[in-house]
Amino acid sequence: MASVLVVEDDQFVRSALIRHLTDAAHTVRSVGTALEALREVAHHGFDVVILDLGLPDLDGAEALKMLRGITDVPVIVATARDDESETVRLLNDGADDYLVKPFSVEHLQARLGAVLRRAHGRAAAPPPRELRVGGLAVDLRRRRAQLDGRELDLTRREFDLLAFLAGQPGVVVPRRELLSEVWRQSYGDDQTIDVHLSWLRRKLGETAANPRYLHTLRGVGVKLEPPPGSPPL
Ligand code: CA
User: Fold this and answer.
1) What pLDDT digit, counting tens, does each position of 51-99 carry?
2) Over the stretch 155-165, which tens digit does the pLDDT of each residue have?
3) For residue 4, how far is its CA from the centre of ligand 1 (angstroms)?
4) Ligand 1 centroid distance, CA of 201 (Å)
5) Which domains does the chain show, CATH number per domain?
6) Sign (positive/negative) of CA torsion 8, 93, 183, 205?
7) Which among 8, 66, 72, 184 counts the fewest CB atoms within 10 Å?
8) Portion of the chain with pLDDT greater than 70, in percent
9) 124 alpha carbon – ligand 1 mean position (Å)
């Protein structure tokens, strides 16, 4: 049972949706415009939003973007067009799933169930407290890091950088992503990152020429991984 916001201007489709959802024991509120939808999500907590892309006031992609600006509630977009590139774009823009009209009750329930399960899984997984990569231990709550049992003396930024990379060991993280996730900037020069990387590297007791944990892939990005011979992750 979930609380669902239906955003649909077609009275016929809207009544049918409300009936199906209510029959499945969900609680439903419904509106017919994007602006009303924004007002609703600002004032009520929903488990999922079903968003018609053909609304009278705002273009569907625009409506989705504005919703995403204020909430991360799962959104299922309902479109009349079976247009793959459009769908991919909407999923990239923050939609969680989509339905192509006309859709069956079974289809609706399957998509709704999948989105709710995913959202539930996200909420249920507790955030990790400690990350371990080889001999490196990063305590996220105390914001402390140790290498082979030795405390590392890191600045705030060095810690953030190390924690971000240790959260995805072995993954090459593009510089652009480091800039937006660690520095919270959408632009900046590579030198800032290089300088912090070289400080961090020194504190880890390694050099760019002889990397152990921290690997720079020129022109691509940076990855952190356990040195060879470490126990598996
Ligand atoms: Ca419509």
Assistant:
1) 999 999 998 889 999 999 898 899 999 988 777 788 778 888 889 988 8
2) 999 999 999 99
3) 18
4) 55
5) 3-122 (3.40.50.2300), 130-224 (1.10.10.10)
6) positive
7) 184
8) 95
9) 34
For the chain, report the end-to-end CA distance as a whole number of angstroms. 38
Question: Token match 């993954």: residue?
Answer: 171
Question: What value does the mean pLDDT take over residues 120-140?
Answer: 81
Ligand 1 centroid distance, CA of 50 (Å): 12
Is this prediction's pTM over 0.85? no
Query: How far apart are the CA of 13 and the centre of ligand 1, in A?
Result: 9
Q: DSSP code of 120?
A: H
By CB neighbour count within 10 A (0-12 exposed, 13-18 middle, 19+ buried), where does 36 fall? middle
Q: Are 5 and 40 in contact (CB under 8 A)?
A: yes
Amino acid at 146: Q
Task: Note residues around ion ligand 1 (Cβ under 5 angstroms).
Answer: 9-10, 52, 54
Q: How far is CA 200 from CA 106, 145, 213, in A?
A: 53, 12, 11
Q: How far apart are CA 70 and CA 229, in angstroms?
A: 46
The per-residue pLDDT of the chain, averaged, comes to: 89
Q: Checking DSSP bridges between strand 150-151 and strand 144-147, what pairing results, if any?
A: antiparallel
**CA 121 to ligand 1 centroid distance, Å:** 31
**5 with 27: CB under 8 angstroms?**
no
Cα–Cα distance measured from residue 196 to residue 8, given in angstroms and rounded to the nearest whole number: 50
Query: How far is ligand 1, taken at its centre, from the CA of residue 32, in Å?
Result: 8
**CA 53 / ligand 1 centre spacing (Å):** 7
